[in-house]
Amino acid sequence: MSALNTESAVRERYAAGAKTPEAKLCCPTDYNPQYLEAIPQEVIERDYGCGDPSQYLRAGETVLDLGSGTGKICFIAAQVVGEKGRDIGVDITDEMLSVARRNAPIVAERLRFANVEFRKGRIQDLALDLERLDEELKARPITDAASFLRADELAQELRVKHPLVASDSVDAVVSNCVLNLVEAKAKRQLFEEIFRVLKIGGRAVISDIVSDEEVPEHLQNDPELWSGCISGALTEEGFLEAFNAAGFYGIQILKRDQEPWQTVEGIEFRSVTIEALKGKQGPCVERNQAVIYRGPFKEVLDDDNHRMERGRRYAVCDKTFNIYRKAPYAAFFEFVEPVTPIPLEQARPFDCSRTALRHPRETKGMDYNLTTEASQCCDGGGCC
Ligand SMILES: C[S@@+](CC[C@H](N)C(=O)[O-])C[C@H]1O[C@@H](n2cnc3c(N)ncnc32)[C@H](O)[C@@H]1O
Question: pTM value?
């Protein structure tokens, strides 16, 4: 099937789904009922999600929702991030955007604050503002091959000068049952775009449909199954690997439905919610820190290919040390700071491509020669 057919099939299906609720597109999902009270019925009835990434957001964050549909996740997220946070929904389908925009002032009035907006774009090309392109093309319509090529140049200029979503601008990218709808050849660019728009330290929290086996070609060529969130599903492994290939780290499955949502020709399609972090890029410096993997496994392999055995001290760069001190790693490690701290400005480069054990003398100093009495833990304590 050509790319154009895939995208048109998706747009037509969701244009219809924006007008009349379509039961076949709904995957049973539980949302916090407290957040649904402020959301009009028209939005709730057109819920085509398969998970709830909004529950993992935090107050004050700027959030981007990919394929926002009629706006339900944005309207829930608006309440989770609160008045100081912000939500941007992006969707390709005019009819979905109309429902979402019509309901935004109603939700804002009920919440007594407005922090949600909806923009038109393709999630695999988050730099291109399609409404701005529409306006430009009204003034300079495409009438021949030369004007078609000019339109292409114009799109590129808009991406650079007026991006729909700027690079390094959002704290969290969420999405609910949309990534599978992007055509196969644009999937790689889609994950790169998610990475581009996130701030360093930001994260993606994505709910989507994945398959337990590769989807065969004859199912991929079925427009009904494409727009129904089946044909474009990545495998469970492929989904996680796509985040890894785009440069994310700390990728984990937050939720995986035990029961499949649908089974087609023996292939199971189910909802998962994953989290992937951005921010391991940048220089590595040596500050004589060490980490000890606490277990319970005999060893772990981290995203920099450091294989760490349980209970042993490993040298890590300052960046890794600080990353491991936070969620989701902190509970798995002990942290050893050097006795004499090395100021950041004096820190030498650290070679993160190797895995090295760290001798206790490296953190204490070669001339460390202290002798102390046993600590006074018997006074009300219980160590001896
Ligand atoms: C399955 S619905 C999910 C809608 C919404 N996230 C929800 O939870 O109800 C898919 C949505 O993604 C939009 N969509 C599909 N492909 C897209 C693309 N390439 N770029 C932007 N939006 C897209 C559709 O218009 C539709 O609104």
Answer: 0.94
